Amino acid sequence: MCHKHQFPCLHCHPHDYIRMVQHMIESCLVFQMSKDESVEALAKHANIEPVITLTVWEELLKENKAFFQEYFQALSPRQSSVD
Question: Per its UniProt entry, which superkingdom is the organism in (predicted)?
Answer without folding.
Answer: Eukaryota
